[in-house]
Amino acid sequence: MNKLIVTLVLLFSCRTDSTPCSDDGSCAFGEVCIEQTCQLNACATSAQCPMEHHCTAQHNCTIGCKKNSDCYPGEYCAEDQSCQADSCSETREDCNVGEFCVNGGCEDAGDEYCQPCSKDSDCAQGLCWAQQYCGVDCNSPSDCPSGYDCVEVSGESGETRQQCLTACWLFEEK
């Protein structure tokens, strides 16, 4: 079996004839159509190149990208043909818990979220819910960092307000 494989490899690698072609699809695997002749070359498409490389018109892999699929997941192909880290465009989808998407980058929401409390006056801008954590005022979910919801909360005085809340106890250092 090994002799058969070696023979086939030698047979195809030593091939000197040129098969006429009209496009890459009419050539054998690993060959590309250049000047209407099938030729063994480095690439026919960028999918045959390493990540962060693309296939040139001369059928060679070169550093850089032409499209997003030439880059690793989470990256995009920039105008200068370099792969760049994806920026955020939507807080709830692109950022980690406790972060906001600001000017294309994820930033920490700040210490006022999940601040421990025992009464409403312990909280700078929200109510102390369940006498454990401060909420932060909000009008809609988009006002809250990733992982938080805008929900109605009642304070110790019976006042009710919309607050950004999450399961704060999951983020406490033990």
Q: Count the DSSP helices.
A: 2
H and E string: HEEEEEEHEEEEEEE
- In what range is the share of β-strand residues? 25-35%
- pLDDT < 50 runs, ≥5 residues: 4-16
Gyration radius over CA: 29 Å
Estimate the global geometry from the Cα principal axes: rod-shaped
Number of domains: 2
Q: Give a quick account of the main beta sheet: strands, pairing sense, barrel closure.
A: 3 strands, antiparallel
By helix and strand content, what is the structural category? mainly beta
- Cα distance spanning the termini: 61 Å
Query: How many distinct beta strands?
Result: 13
Roughly what is the average pLDDT, rounded to an integer?
Answer: 81
**Cross-sheet strand order for the largest sheet:** 11-13-12
Estimated helix fraction: under 10%
